[in-house]
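Lab notebook: predicted structure, single chain.

Context: the supervisor wants predicted structures on file for every construct in the current expression panel, including those that have not yet been purified. This is the next one on the list. No modifications to the sequence; it matches the entry in the shared construct table.
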Amino acid sequence: MAQLKKPTIKNPNLVAAMADFKQSQNQQTEEAMLSAVQEASFIAPISLQTSLNEVEPDENGQRQVQASLTAVSNKEGVKLFPAFTDWLEFLKWQNNPDAETMVITFDQYCDLLLKQQIDIRGIVINPAENNLVIRKEKMAELKGVSLPEPVENHAITPMFGTEKLTNPNVVAAVTRFRTEATPEVQNMVFDALRKGRFVAPAIMKDFPKTVKPGEKVNAKAEFIMLNREDKKFLPIFTSLSELQKWSTAPACSAVPLTFAQYTGILSDPNGTAAGVVIDPFTLGLTFTKEQVLSIQPRLEPQELKVIPMDMLQELKEHLAGVPAVKKAYLSGIRANGTDGHLIIIELDQPQKDIRAITDPIAQIAKKHGSCVVAPADSPMGKQAIEGKAPFYEA
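Prediction complete. Output recorded below exactly as produced.
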């Protein structure tokens, strides 16, 4: 695979100034460090829209590709551009010699962050060790300019509380996954997606002009998709501000959707979406339709054809030591076309951490095939136990 030429720049003056400031934080060392920052060029990680070997060279032998800077997020969900003083510092952060990068100056960072309406709060220099953050406000002060007033996208109308939605856990997990693509971090991403509530752009049809508080509304929503590599993807925005970065978005409404609802849309046999893309203008992480269905299975309750007596006996023995479970029922379920077992548990009282009860049950049942464990007071549980006798009762 063709690769971009790796940068060979170093910033000895800046590295020394940062070390002096870290050792003795005062006005003199801070001014010296900020002066060195303004003169520096940095290594920045990027995401290529197409790979180099897919692009034909021009008459000068150069290949032109579209690329976007990669952003990271701290524990509070604040997004920053990582900037590295040299290649070794980059490798400390992401041990990937084949990673795509570019060289960008401090002035170029300022042009990008101070003149454009993007939800990136500044840069973080050498995040693996020094972790020096320079916010937009300080950058504007150094350049002697004022931050631009935020511009609202009046083509997007927030509805049903979408202006209050934030998903810092999703942002943090996806940011980590882009540099640490391990099964453990992937599961963190999947778990955060299942629990999240997101912002989706939609064209609302048959929606009344006025709605009274508490009034039920019947309306249709046509969800807007993005084109990527000749395929259509449903965008998942973690916040309204992320959706508002879509400067060319058509006039639409911002409505809340859960990941399960995205799964339902993708499960439509007449649908044209190839998958989803999370925060396409910053994070840009895509999942195919098949991956989404594995993250959030499409569940359909059904009757069991064969009752696994060995599983029931093992579950009874286990549940005898779980005082919180009053009753347990067994039914069938079909998840993404695969038959499995549905185990419904009735609890003596609401539990703060129900997974501490359901996970051991699932581990036993999974030895006999795919399974889902649900509480009796859930919509699925209520439907499944109707007219059934429990196989276990305390």
